[in-house]
Amino acid sequence: MNILIVEDHEKINALLARFARQDNHDVSQTYSAEEAFKVIHEKTYDLIITDLMLPDMQGETLIEKIREVSDIYIMVISAKREVDDRIDVLSLGADDYLTKPFSVEEVMAKLRNLAKRLNHEKPLFYSFYDGELEVRPLERKAILNNNEIRMTANEYDVFLYLLKHPNRVFSRDEIIIGLFGDSEAFDRVVDVYIKNIRKKLNDDSKHPRYIKTIYGQGYQFVGDRDD
User: Fold this and answer.
1) Which segments of the chain have a pLDDT < 70?
2) Distance between CA atoms of 27 and 167, rounded to whole angstroms?
3) Which of 39, 50, 120, 218 could bond to 6 as cystine, CB 3.0-4.6 Å?
4) How far apart, in whole angstroms, are the C-alpha atoms of residue 61 and residue 82?
């Protein structure tokens, strides 16, 4: 598995990394949430192991931000031992919670079990056409040929909504209901958003590489995602 460790205590970080590598896991080590945000856009991970008491951002906040965009498995290892602390963190979306001091053997056993069944559906970033386009949901950024695309909030939301459901056709009404709920948005507004998104992606509507119009039905994301 590809594992990201987020732990500011250097000895604990090194201990977890050493044992995980001995079990043939690919390990990246970070020491702050800021570092973690950087590396998750450079590589796809199967598991994040994180502390809660980090120097620049509480682990709880890190978990919330990740859960906004990804189902990646999150294992917390923390000195917070109160039952309420565990419940709060699990409620935020963490998948497992171990307290310090912990058994490295127990962690490795959990990793071996996870490796057999892990399958997260939502990656932390997306890449298309050999890196031509990168989409970073945590940062709400889209980067085309190394240049950031400036989208409005609604344009970005529509684009990401289609991107997360590749090859599925969405009608205008489905997009409005899925994104804007009970707002006063009307279907032609979606057409405007799509037109603007295409322009910013340099996407030809007649020969689309990203968003295809299915006449009489709606819109479909057809970008060729990198492995």
Assistant:
1) 118-122, 182-187
2) 33
3) 50
4) 18
For β-strands 147-148 and 2-6, DSSP reports them as unpaired
- For residue range 199-226, list pLDDT tens digits in order: 999 999 999 999 999 999 999 999 999 9
Identify the CATH number of the domain defined by range 2-117: 3.40.50.2300
- What CATH number belongs to 126-221? 1.10.10.10
Q: How much is the pTM?
A: 0.71
Residue ranges, comma separated, of all CATH 3.40.50.2300 domains in the chain are 2-117
Q: What angle do CA 97, 103, 109 make, to 5 degrees?
A: 75
Angle between helices 10-22 and 104-117 (to 10 degrees): 50
Would you say 5 and 49 are in contact if contact means Cβ atoms under 8 Å apart?
yes
Q: Which two tokens stand for residue 200?
A: 């910013």
Contact 66, 145 (CB under 8 A): no
Give the residue from 160, 165, 110, 166 showing the smallest Cα distance to 138.
Answer: 160
Locate CATH 1.10.10.10 in the chain. 126-221
Structure tokens at 63: 């978990």
Question: What strand order describes the sheet that includes 147-148?
Answer: 126-128, 133-136, 141-144, 147-148
Chain centroid to CA 106: 27
